[in-house]
């Protein structure tokens, strides 16, 4: 995620945005930038003095300490390396012109982004010696199946930010560009995303990244032996959907009746949506209150309970 801030952000002039052509030089530049953190994880030590490498080296050290066998560690490191390579492909594809994008390539990289990210986090659980077994191949594939839906909804949740960063060829972005090809350029150049939000809702692009109840059941089936993992993946997807609905630029964000209708249209239960919203607001409040709580704790008299 630290590396992402550089390779994704337009302010770092890394990918150049959708108004500039893309070539293999961008892939080489992205891969070269990511390599030190990947090497630091694999070697369990910082390969240079950059803070990101020190963090990656510490991560590698902790993974080695957790691993009960070299085989399980290598299994995870292979997925991490794949995830790093996915980012190389993602920068080039997502920062391109959505009217020229290959929809199949965008769908594939979308599945890989969230699939690999969530899989590598989950695979840490197979490292300790009390883990019953490593993940099976069909279970790993299930993460990429969920990844397509999660990444598509994540792109909606971050639509304003991603547009400002020039990442306009997301799965929803490409689908909208096929219907309104001029809209993305105006939003990107003018820095005005409200029309994008209105068009995404009007054309039901958001519904295209929401699995139906039967599709949800199909997504859960391969992961049924993994405890609450299927529930967490569904929760992540639902939370991202709620962030999309509650974004200030979404047409339904400030209209309770419209919001309820949109929630139902996306097959997102209203009470679940409220729970997502309440949890998000509570977390934000805790973050903003943390400095004050720390300050008052430091200033409390010694006799304070």
Structural summary, described in words:
This protein has 14 helices and no strands. With 305 residues, it is mainly α. The protein starts with a helix and ends in a 6-residue tail after the last helix. Residues 295-305 have low confidence and may be disordered.
Give me some keywords for this one.
305 residues, mainly alpha, Farnesyl Diphosphate Synthase, 68% helix, globular, disordered C terminus
User: Number of DSSP helices?
Assistant: 14
What's the total count of β strands? 0
Radius of gyration: 21 Å
Strand content: under 5%
What is the level-2 CATH architecture name?
A: Orthogonal Bundle
Structural class: mainly alpha
- Helix and strand succession? HHHHHHHHHHHHHH
Uncertain segments: 295-305
Roughly how much helix do the residues carry, as a percent range? Answer: 55-70%
The count of domains is 1
Overall geometry? globular
Estimate the mean pLDDT confidence. Answer: 87
CATH topology: Farnesyl Diphosphate Synthase
Text of the CATH class: Mainly Alpha
CA(first)-CA(last) distance:
40 Å
**Major beta sheet, specifics?**
none
Compact summary:
The protein has 305 residues and is mainly α. The chain has 14 helices and no strands.
């Amino acid at each position: 995620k630290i590396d992402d801030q550089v390779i994704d952000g337009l302010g770092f002039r890394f990918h150049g945005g959708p108004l500039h052509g893309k070539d293999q030089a961008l892939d080489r530049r992205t891969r070269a930038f990511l390599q030190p953190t990947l090497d630091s994880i694999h070697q369990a030590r910082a390969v240079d003095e950059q803070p990101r490498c020190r963090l990656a080296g510490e991560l590698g050290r902790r993974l080695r300490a957790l691993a009960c066998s070299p085989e399980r560690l290598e299994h995870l490191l292979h997925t991490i390396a794949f995830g790093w390579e996915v980012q190389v492909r993602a920068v080039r594809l997502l920062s391109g012109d959505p009217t020229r994008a290959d929809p199949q390539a965008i769908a594939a990289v979308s599945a890989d982004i969230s699939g690999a990210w969530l899989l590598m986090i989950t695979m840490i659980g197979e490292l300790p010696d009390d883990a019953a077994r490593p993940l099976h191949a069909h279970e790993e594939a299930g993460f990429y199946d969920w990844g397509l839906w999660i990444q598509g909804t994540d792109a909606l949740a971050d639509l304003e930010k991603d547009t400002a960063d020039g990442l306009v060829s997301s799965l929803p972005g490409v689908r909208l560009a096929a219907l309104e090809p001029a809209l993305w350029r105006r939003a990107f150049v003018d820095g005005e995303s409200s029309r994008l939000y209105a068009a995404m809702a009007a054309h039901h692009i958001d519904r295209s990244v929401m699995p139906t109840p039967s599709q949800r059941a199909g997504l859960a089936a391969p992961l049924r032996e993994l405890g609450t993992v299927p529930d967490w993946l569904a929760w992540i997807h639902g939370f991202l959907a709620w962030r999309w609905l509650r974004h200030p630029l979404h047409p339904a964000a400030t209209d309770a009746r419209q919001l309820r209708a949109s929630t139902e249209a996306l097959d997102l239960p209203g009470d679940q949506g409220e729970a997502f919203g309440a949890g998000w607001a509570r977390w934000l409040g805790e973050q903003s209150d943390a400095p004050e709580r720390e300050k008052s704790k430091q200033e409390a008299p010694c006799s304070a309970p």
